[in-house]
Amino acid sequence: MKINIPLTLAVFFLLPFSVSAFDHKHTTFTSLLEKHVIMTKNGQESRVNYSALKKDYETLKKYLSSLSSVTQREFHSWPEEKRLSFLINTYNAFTIDLILKHYPVTSIQKTGSLMRNPWKIKFINLYGKTISLDDLEHGLVRQKGVYDEPRIHFALVCASIGCPALQNKAFTYDQLEVMLEKGLVNFLSDKTRNRYNSEKKSFEVSKIFKWFGGDFEKKYGSVINLLNTHSKYLVKDEKALPSAEETNNIKFLNYDWNLNDIKK
Question: Would you say residue 12 has pLDDT above 90?
Answer without folding.
Answer: no
